[in-house]
């Protein structure tokens, strides 16, 4: 039998390490080895040390499987990366790469040098005579430091990883090959009449991935809910240890009171159904013609009694548990009880093996390019050294047999040459010494110049911060330039206190779990007040917290714009609408040190401001303020004239000119934001780079438009 090289697909989960080895035997995918290594503790438990637990599991895997000498493909969680899909205009296939690079700059919220990314045209794309007419391109990315963190356990174990793939994409590869192969091989994709879609729900330990696919197109989303949420619910409501709650969850039907267990977990069941319904609803809103035919569920959590039936009943779909694979052979492995008991967790590993064997629909990989280059050089190094050695031997032989003979037969000619070489060598040595001295002097002068210029910029930094905050605080013009007499009509903000504090690690020391939750709620309220739709991505992904060191600036102040008639615009909402918005979308104009008459405009983010946050949410309280219409002379004249009526005696005279104080509602707020210092020269450099990138993007868009025009002209 013809047997190809084997491939390992490895998934490092939160509760266990899963590994599956597959090969192609007579055109069939065959599983010939597997391993399921459960950690002593779940990685997300407070007392767990993930690095040690993963290292021990990998060591067991290596010991049981002779060191993993085959090709290795690993997965990373869906929330660790980015997957975007877009439809390019009709264009030549060779220009797709330029369009994707332009799209990457628009879709990836980081500098492309800081991310590992790859792309691929989706199956069913229509290509005719070198032109991509009806096509869709998948763009996949992950931050470079995150990629190296995922590879670190394998590097420490001396395991060379060949493919890094997002778990949702690996799941798509599995479904496309195992359940939709006939459709992909025999049908042409018609965007106006797409085939039925399947929903694949992979329920993990702490999060879940939801993929909607018809084989030709993919839509995926990560959801912050998983099997651990059921365990934590039991721990919280039944007052038991995490280990006991986990055991009860897995063996609910054998519990003393199964009904109590299921009732306790019902809120989590409802949360899971709500998240799935919301995701499917959003998918249907952007894919109007899509029809969903079934729900496939995978992950060890699906073994929980009643989960599949509950999902089917509340979602209205036919539910199938992925506990067996239609096109995977190898009964020697598939019949083993350990594999059968945990088959629902091997879907990702199966998809990774398919990619490693070259039979998957998606073959993009997030291995950093520098690692690929280093491996290519290492592979070619022996041949390069051998070629250089042969060349060196040949040149040495040529010198020995030819040049030595020439020297012996013409000593007069060689003596003049030796003299010239000695003279040139002495002159060269003298020039080198002189150049070395001058170079050292130039280095010293450059260093002194940098120190002088740098100190000058640093001295201006705090003055710029105060100026920037002063510019961002909203101001409201009045017709006569004076404050409005009625306090509740004044939109102005009055700042009473300005404090700063430095943190070596903002994310650890300032952006605590409580503060992160507060920021998420405040951002949701800000989007609502501004009338903006919430982003499709979770706010935790868009705002993971500030990295590194920096300052936290705190402003305390108040405003009087708190009339009870202004529902949705008073109190905290007034702060969000104007104050918070200024630190997101305002402008800062600073003089250019190179030309003080000229001003340069920066955004708050370019200046280094981020994470603006109103800490407190309180109702306005009534306070006494000076009455701008109070006339003391009128009061005195009234008293002198004997106007001492009952109203004056009782203090109930309502004449505005006679009331020294008024009671008005005042809203006090505490506002914080992060400032990570950068010099003026650094900001200007960023502006120049963004301008260059925008110009390049405009050129790419112009080229794409020209290509589209050419395509229309050809048709």
Automatic annotation (TrEMBL):
Which sequence ranges are marked TM in the entry? 382-401
Mind telling me which Gene3D superfamilies this protein's record contains?
Answer: 3.30.1490.300, 3.30.420.40
Pfam families reported in the protein's UniProt record: PilM_2 (PF11104)
Question: Which InterPro entries is this protein grouped with?
Answer: ATPase_NBD, FtsA/MreB, PilM
Alphabetical keyword list: Membrane, Transmembrane, Transmembrane helix
**Does the record's keyword annotation contain Transmembrane helix?**
yes
Q: Which NCBIfam families match?
A: pilM
What protein does this entry describe? Competence protein A
Q: Which organism is it from?
A: Stieleria varia
Q: What is the lineage of its organism?
A: Bacteria, Pseudomonadati, Planctomycetota, Planctomycetia, Pirellulales
């Amino acid at each position: 039998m013809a047997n190809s090289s084997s491939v390992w697909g490895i998934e490092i989960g939160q509760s266990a390490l899963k590994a599956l080895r597959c090969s192609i035997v007579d055109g069939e995918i065959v599983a010939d080895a597997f391993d399921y290594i459960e950690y002593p503790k779940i990685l997300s438990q407070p007392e767990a040390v993930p690095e040690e637990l993963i290292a021990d599991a990998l060591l067991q895997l290596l010991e049981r499987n002779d060191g993993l000498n085959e090709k290795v493909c690993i997965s990373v969680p869906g929330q660790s990366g980015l997957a975007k899909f877009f439809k390019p205009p009709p264009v030549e296939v060779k220009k797709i790469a330029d369009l994707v690079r332009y799209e990457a700059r628009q879709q990836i919220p980081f500098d492309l040098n800081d991310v590992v990314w790859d792309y691929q045209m989706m199956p069913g794309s229509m290509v005719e005579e070198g032109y991509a007419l009806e096509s869709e391109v998948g763009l996949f990315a992950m931050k470079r430091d995150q990629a190296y963190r995922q590879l670190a356990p394998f590097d420490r174990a001396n395991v060379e990883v060949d493919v890094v793939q997002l778990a949702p994409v690996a799941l798509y590869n599995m479904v496309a090959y195992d359940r939709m192969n006939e459709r992909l091989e025999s049908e042409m994709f018609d965007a106006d009449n797409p085939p039925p879609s399947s929903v694949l729900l992979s329920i993990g330990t702490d999060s879940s991935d939801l993929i909607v696919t018809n084989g030709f197109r993919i839509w995926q989303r990560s959801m912050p809910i998983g099997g651990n949420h059921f365990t934590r619910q039991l721990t919280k409501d039944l007052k038991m240890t995490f280990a006991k709650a986990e055991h009860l969850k897995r063996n609910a039907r054998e519990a003393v009171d199964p009904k109590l267990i299921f009732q306790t977990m019902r809120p989590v069941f409802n949360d899971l159904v709500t998240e799935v319904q919301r995701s499917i609803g959003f998918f249907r809103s952007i894919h109007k013609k899509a029809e969903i035919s079934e729900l496939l569920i995978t992950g060890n959590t699906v073994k929980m009694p009643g989960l599949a039936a509950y999902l089917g009943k509340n979602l209205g779909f036919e539910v199938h548990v992925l506990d067996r694979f239609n096109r995977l052979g190898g009964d020697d492995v598939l019949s083993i009880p350990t594999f059968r008991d945990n088959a629902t967790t091997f879907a990702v590993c199966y998809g990774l093996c398919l990619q490693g064997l070259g039979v998957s629909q998606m073959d993009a990989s997030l291995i950093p390019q520098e690692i690929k280059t280093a491996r290519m050089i290492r592979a070619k190094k022996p041949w390069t050294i051998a070629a250089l050695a042969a060349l060196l031997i040949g040149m040495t032989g040529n010198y020995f047999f030819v040049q030595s003979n020439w020297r012996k037969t013409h000593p007069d000619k060689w003596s003049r040459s030796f003299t010239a070489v000695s003279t040139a060598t002495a002159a060269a040595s003298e020039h080198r010494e002189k150049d070395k001295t001058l170079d050292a002097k130039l280095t010293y002068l450059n260093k002194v110049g940098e120190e002088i210029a740098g100190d000058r910029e640093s001295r201006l930094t705090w003055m710029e911060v105060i100026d920037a905050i002063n510019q961002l605080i909203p101001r409201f013009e009045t017709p006569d330039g004076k404050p409005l007499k009625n306090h509740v009509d004044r939109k102005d903000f009055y700042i009473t206190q300005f404090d700063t504090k430095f943190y070596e690690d903002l994310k650890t020391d300032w952006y605590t779990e409580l503060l992160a939750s507060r920021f998420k709620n405040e951002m949701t309220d800000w989007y609502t007040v501004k009338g903006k739709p919430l982003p499709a991505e979770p706010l935790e992904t868009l705002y993971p917290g500030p990295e590194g060191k920096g300052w936290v600036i705190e402003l305390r102040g108040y405003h009087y714009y708190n009339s009870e008639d202004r529902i949705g615009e008073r109190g905290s909402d007034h702060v969000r609408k104007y104050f918070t918005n200024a630190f997101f979308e305002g402008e800062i104009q600073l003089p250019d040190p190179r030309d003080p008459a000229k001003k340069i405009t920066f955004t708050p983010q370019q200046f280094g401001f981020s994470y603006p946050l109103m800490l407190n949410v309180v109702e306005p309280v009534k306070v006494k303020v000076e009455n701008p219409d109070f006339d003391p002379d009128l009061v005195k004249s009234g008293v002198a004239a004997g106007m001492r009526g009952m109203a004056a005696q009782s203090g109930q005279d309502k004449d505005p000119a006679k009331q020294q104080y008024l009671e008005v509602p005042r809203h006090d707020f505490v506002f914080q934001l992060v400032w990570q210092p950068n010099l003026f020269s650094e900001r200007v450099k960023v502006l120049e780079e963004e301008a260059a990138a925008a110009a390049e993007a405009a050129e790419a868009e112009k080229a794409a438009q020209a290509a589209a025009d050419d395509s229309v002209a050809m048709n």
